[in-house]
Structure formats: C-alpha cells, structure tokens
Write a structure and sequence with these properties.
RmlC_Cupin_sf; RmlC-like_jellyroll; binds fe (ii) ion; seven-stranded antiparallel sheet; Jelly Rolls; mainly beta; globular; 2 domains
C-alpha cells in the first residue's frame, strides 16, 4: 500500500543515495512517496556528478521529468521540461546525465531494479502494469516545451479552464475505469477556482513546479507534493492570482 501523502514540501525531507543501480556517477534522492511493499516510489533526484548508465530495462514502469539540467537518451537531448517513460521490461537506450541535473523520477508497480541488456526482458512487453491494452509497450520521449497547452477534456464544468500537456496517455478500458495511466503537466490559470469536492477511482499525484494552489489540504507552492489514493476527496481549489499553479 502506498500511503496518502498530502501535502509535503520536498525541502523538508532528507537526502538518500539515489536508487539508480548500474549507473556510474553520484546522485542523491529525496523520497516524496514510497510504497514499502512493491518498491514503487516518487522521488526527486539530483545528479551531483556526470552520470551514465548503459542500455537495459527497468523493473518498474519508470518516468523521468527534467526540472533542471540536461540528459541524453539514445541520440536525443532533453533539457528542462523533457520527459521520458518506459514500461517495465522495455529496453531503454544508454543514458548520460549532465552534472547538476535535477529530475522527478516516478516509478510505479515495481522497485528500483535495472538490468543491463541489449534487448527487452521478454518477447512481449506490455504498455504498463495497469494497462488495458494488448499493444506492445513503447518508449515515450517528449519535450513539453514543444507542445501547446490543450484544454482539459472535461467539457462543461469549471475544470475545462485547466490547461494540459499530455506526456503519456494509456486509456482506461470502457469496462474498468481503474485501468490505464495518464501523465501530464497541468496549469491552472491565475484566479482559477472550482468550489466542488471531487474524488477519482484511481490514485493521483503531483509535484508543484510553480505558482500556488489553495485547497482543502492546504496550499501547494513550488516544491510541494502529494500522493492521493483513490477515492480521497479533494477540492475547493483557488489558484494563485499571479501565475496560477503548474504541476507535473
Ligand atoms: Fe483530482
């Protein structure tokens, strides 16, 4: 079980040696949320030296969101606002990370394990541990700077004023809304408000990148984070007047 964490400020937490096996270099991490049973975790990782790792596959569904610095994955460079995701078992090309790079590393349905390999773990790799799809999993590499903000899909209510950049979408099955997975950057425009209390059939988590959002659990400013299990009520949001609120 992953406990309800809401809301914390990352700066209040201590540093650990980063859980990045098979890599060369120095990195430290702050644990934002940790599942002691399956090893899932959401962490902020800072690379204190240049760091590199050969190609291979993660043992969890893994996402990196770059907050500062630069990484090279395969032959692609990703700076601030860059994102990559790989489902467990899918081979990821070699990675190089510039000293000082600061990322959010979220891993789901598995632990920190990484196996160096020149091929996938098995002949078929699924899109993720919670997928409803029969399609093979793939490596997602996105630069959010190159994307336009799109309106929220929930037409007809106050949440339609939210702006999104979808990093990864694995749709839920029509028969089971507990399936699938979505990762996005979300922006609540200045002064946005929604006075309802809502809940979801699935967990929700976010790291605040900029701005401010006041709601029933307190105030989300830059560096705050929450992991909210399914069915926990949250709401009466009021976004900051100056910059609104932006989170991943
Ligand atoms: Fe929500």
């Amino acid at each position: 079980v992953r406990p309800h964490v809401e809301a914390i400020q990352q700066a209040d937490f201590c540093w650990h040696e980063a859980e990045l096996p098979r890599g060369e270099g120095q990195a430290k991490q702050r644990n934002l949320s940790y599942d002691e049973e399956d090893g899932s975790a959401s962490t902020r990782v800072v690379f204190e030296s240049a760091w590199s790792r050969p190609g291979g596959y993660h043992h969890a569904d893994v996402e990196w969101f770059i907050m500062e610095g630069m990484i090279k994955i395969g032959d692609q460079y990703l700076g601030k606002g860059g994102y990559y995701r790989a489902p467990a078992g899918l081979r990821v090309p070699p990675i190089e990370v510039q000293e000082g790079t600061d990322i959010l590393l979220f891993r789901e349905y598995g632990d920190w394990g990484f196996s160096v390999s020149d091929k996938d773990q098995s002949e078929f790799v699924s899109r993720g541990a919670n997928t409803a799809s029969d399609e093979p999993g793939e490596l997602t590499i996105v630069d959010s700077n190159k994307m336009e903000w799109m309106p929220n899909v929930y037409e007809g209510d106050t949440q339609r004023f939210l702006k999104l950049k979808a990093m990864f979408i694995d749709p839920a099955s029509p028969d089971n809304n507990n399936t699938g997975f979505v990762s996005m950057v979300c922006w609540c425009p200045p002064g946005w408000s929604d006075n309802r209390m809502v809940h979801h059939p699935v967990f929700e988590e976010a790291y605040s990148i900029a701005g401010r959002l006041d709601y029933n659990f307190g105030s989300l400013g830059a560096g705050t984070y929450f992991f909210r299990p399914a069915l926990v009520k949250h709401g009466h949001f009021i976004a900051g007047e100056e910059r609104g609120w932006t989170g991943f």
